[in-house]
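Comment thread on ticket #2218

A.B. wrote:
> Attaching the input chain for the structure job we discussed in standup.
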Amino acid sequence: MSIEATGAEPQSNRGLGLASVAALGVVFGDIGTSPLYTLKTVLDYTGPNPDAKATLGALSLILWTLFLVTTVKYVNVAMRIDNDGEGGIIALMTLLGVRRRQRPLIVAAALFGAALIYGDGAITPAISVLSALEGVEQIAPSLQTYVLPAATLILLALFAAQPFGTAAIGRAFGPIMLLWFAVIAALGAYGVIQHPSVFAAVDPLYGLEYLSNGGLQGFLVLGGVFLCVTGAEALYADMGHFGPTPIRLSWSLIVFPALIVNYAGQAAIVLAGASTEGNIFYRLCPTPLLTPMIVLATVATVIASQSIITGAFSMTRQAIQLGWLPRMAITQTSAEGYGQIYVGAVNWILMIVTLGLTIGFGKSDNLAAAYGIAVSATMLMTSVLLFIAMREVWGWPIAGAGAVAGLFLIVDGAFLAANLAKVMQGGWVPLLLASIVYGVMWIWHRGATAVRDQVVAQQTPLSAMIAELHSGKIARVPGSAVFFTRAFDKTPPVMDWHVRKNRALHESVLALTLTVLSIPWTDPDERLTVQHVDDKFWRAEARRGFMEHPDIPEILKECKATGVGIDLDDVTFYVGAETIVPREDGKGIPRWQEALFAALGRNAERISDYLDLPCDQVVEIGREIAI
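C.D. wrote:
> Ran it. Output below, let me know if you need it in another format.
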């Protein structure tokens, strides 16, 4: 654990530049496409033809939100607190709620924040693609009829392409987004020229006056203002992929200036008399360039959607590794990057929900009501965790930590309160989705803990098994066997059952325990511990971080290198196949939770498939476990 992120190696200037451009295509897609709908949504609260005070007030709120939430909170504070180079709410949770001290309340709150991100993952593609395509109404109003079918087809193609991975086209994401930011900055500058006094909105008094004089309506405007930072959490979550320096560089030199100029340009043309009907963003674009601009915007929103989907895949893998979700089939779609994965179950569920939202809401204006509530709640929970990290990681006094985190909490709390007013207008959708995901996490973890407790309680001492092997009553047959077990100091239950039923055991035996740590990556010197228990009998514990997937062939090679005498060409893997049943005494977990956990277990990926074990070398031994 460190104070400054260590996720990336020191980079040359050229390498830093390439990493910064690559970060544009992964990190900034969501926040970078927010100008398509943010100012339009905010000004919709004021009605048609807003006056200068309303326009400058709205712009001031957007500019200062970008600065306080993204630049100050995430880029300059949050990205300095990491879990061995990894950022994001799950990394913070494992650092503060598991690794340093067991804190169930922190874990529960952070997991709900993580679950909320799935809601954002479903809404972002829908609102982004719809917003991009709605510009066609400025070419010809009759084309508006085709926006929804076109958006549906694009999103369907996006999700259908996920199994093939994005490695082949992923290299183009950064340059395309670089072009996007250059274009929106140019369009913004074109707008500012028409009314240069728009930059008076840099004065925060315009925004504060707009809020104070607007009453309840002015407060609710914050729900629209928040849309400008819905992608800010991604900066922190993706820190481990690029390191903090490329992300900070891209934000400070490219993204932040481009967003400021574009929002100012949109406000400037409104001050100059442009209508707020339709999409203000596209009113910045000269008519001859409108069609290529719509194409570029659509591509940019697809890239933003891809980043959200990839983030959901990565978060799912972390949750599986940490024991909060059932095992799912995870496919590595590229050998070039660990983050290039595909999780089928998550992909198809997100597709169904996203298409349902797209068709159900129909327009980006309608979706804006459902958007923001999930991310604002996650940001509030992140601020709470940052306060704890300031105290425990940095050692700040409570006054200093309280002052900084208090500012974040006030801002995040205000945005969440404003977004909560949109619950009945569609905000219930991400909340419902997050509640379902959180419920699955909670029930799975509770059931898995109950199973582990039952297995540990039924284990026999290893010394008893060794004594039985020495008695000569157990035949030793040629070959090597690997028994997977949860406990490091007891007889593997699968091995115990195998010996008692078959009265035989392979000549060379390895009992292997896979342990997932509360750190993302494991130190090379701590990845493997091997113990010679008895003649041709070894125990090994392979430790991996929650960002790593255990490679069994590689682990066995490491064991072999330490002196474990197993034949890698003639090895049989023994795993347990557990059937969950309720306890007859009624003292276990509630029946409805047991039933749901059992159903999740039946639909989870088999452990042999999850570990990529050769199917013709695996023996699964079934047993009933009452919880």
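A.B. wrote:
> Thanks. Noting for the ticket: The mean pLDDT is 86.
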